[in-house]
Amino acid sequence: MHLITSTVGRKLLMAVSGLMLVGFITVHLMGNLSVFAGADAINIYAEKLHSLGPLVWVFRLAMLGLFAVHIGFGIQLSMENRRANPESYAIKQKLKTTFAAESMLYTGLVLLAFLIYHLLHFTVQITNPEISAHQLPLDAAMRLDVFSMVVMSFQKVFIALVYIVAMCALFLHLSHGLSSWVQTLGWNNGESQDKVVLIGRLVAVVFGLAYIAIPFLILVRFVK
Amino acid sequence: MNLTLHVWRQKGPQDKGKLETYPAKGVSEDQSFLEMLDDVNEELIKSGKDPIAFDHDCREGICGMCSQVINGKPHGGQERTTVCQLHMREFNDGDELFIEPWRARAFPIHKDLIVDRTALEMVMQAGGYTSCHTGGVADGNALLIPKPVADYAMDAAECIGCGACVASCPNSSAMLYTSAKVSQLAVLPQGKGEAKARVKEMTDAMQNEGFGNCTNHYECQEACPKGISVKFIAKLNREYMKSMA
To answer: What is the CATH number of the domain that holds A155?
Structure first.
């Protein structure tokens, strides 16, 4: 398969898997924002998700595949790039690139570490068992009280900070990725270049603010 | 004007190399950068030192030999200008200049500021050819090419293969160079025959020569003395997808 060995092929795989992961975080964000609509909203949403049964596992396996492709090729390509550029200049000036573009590997690894923590925290629920939905009393409609788990978690400064820092990494990662895929899929021409970059960054700001708003507004007791 | 130069000195490919400092005295603002270096070399020779080795050929901005990074910018950073066309009026009395060779694994340093850019030729060799008739010369107007297509191909063909794109790239990727060659040939009727094979062969050659992968930093476009746009990299990506179909 030329696609998985070629420099352009793997770039395409990074773009397509990245784009699908953006699709995932979009849906995930919409679900999360239901926390602002009150306890019932997010508890109903969580119950509905759990009721999908085997579909949940199909989805989880697909996500695992996507992450494997995106992270695996990302690390491989980064290591090749490092080998290609072993000696640094005494002085090097940035002409166009950004901190976000240069730190894609690192923000990506921060997000991987966060992903593992996030799954242990809210899915497996072993990092703070005392406030996990499985330990808390059911809500008035006899559903798992996800709302209380989320609120009690983000009232803890450490947990809220972990999420806020990770979402800053997500913002940086997206601010390069959200325009990079357009170029990689060959949808750019000379005129669109700078506009696409700008739109990508603006959309990244929206994602960043929305994701940070959840732990932040709970931490400052705006939502309780 | 008087300047202080910090120049990369390296005896040969195996030498470790280091920056050495030399004064450049009485520099005229009408001199080109290379003429300024010529004068510095005269002084070095007079004092019995080894002159600074640097590449140059045409000194009119089209050969792509002068592979120097000046103060962290390939070709000194003046828009659409090679080092030989860079004039000393761009600098001020008392300036300190850091002069380094292109740095990339695919461009081993021969000596001082001279790098071996054979790797770019290997990329060209892998796919930069077209099939053509042998025998008599074809009539120049027999093959009609619409003006916009000819212009597009010419914009890509402006690439002089100097390697500034590689020198500026955080990944030492030669994607801008490769994409210019692929795009130029892909849009012209003469190049269509090999288009599918070419994009794979040239990008594979790029990888095999030790260049890195493109991650869309766009440093190359800014560094390019011929203003080659990264739209050609998007074009290369489209050509690659077409070749998969």
So the answer is: 1.20.1300.10
Structure confidence by residue, pLDDT tens digits, B103-140: 999 999 999 999 999 999 999 999 999 998 888 888 87
CA distance to B40, B110, B228, per residue, from B79 (Å): 25, 27, 12
What are the tokens at B85? 């066309």
Interchain CB distance below 8 Å, B229 and A92: no
Strands B96-101 and B3-9: parallel
CA distances to A104, A189, B29, B168, B187 from B32, in Å: 39, 35, 8, 22, 37
Task: Please give the structure tokens belonging to residue B176.
Answer: 């801008």
Domains located in chain B, CATH noted:
3-111 (3.10.20.30), 117-131+143-244 (1.10.1060.10)
Residue A162 located in a structural domain: yes
The two tokens of residue B238 are 């489209």
Subunit contact B106:A188, Cβ cutoff 8 A? no
Residue A2 lies in a domain: no
Inter-chain residue contact A90 with B100, CB threshold 8 Å: yes
CA distance readout (Å), A197 to A187, A203, A211: 12, 10, 21
Burial of B19 (0-12, 13-18, 19+ CB in 10 A): middle
Return the SS3 of B53.
coil
Average pLDDT of the residues in A159-184: 98
Q: How confident is the model at residue A58 (pLDDT cuts 50, 70, 90)?
A: very high
Using alpha carbons, list the distances in angstroms from residue B99 to B7, B8, B51, B58, B83: 5, 6, 14, 20, 11
Kindly provide the ipTM of the predicted complex, given to two decimals: 0.95
The answer to whether B223 and B75 have CB atoms below 8 angstroms apart is yes
Contact B173 A9 (CB under 8 A): no
Instruction: Give yes or no for A80 touching B (CB within 8 A).
Output: yes
* Tally of domains in chain A: 1
Residues A100 and A170: their CA atoms lie apart, in Å, by 10
Rounded-to-integer distance, Cα A210 and Cα A34, Å: 12
Task: List, for residues A174-197, the tens digit of each pLDDT value.
Answer: 999 999 999 999 999 999 999 999
Residue A22 within a domain: yes
Domain contains A150: yes
Cβ-contact A149, A128 below 8 angstroms: no
| Residue-range definition of the domain harbouring residue A214 | 7-219
To test the contact with chain B by mutation, choose from A1, A7, A80, A102 the residue with the greatest count of B C-beta atoms within 10 A, namely A7
Task: Single out the residue of A134, A107, A138, A108 nearest to residue A121, CA to CA.
Answer: A134
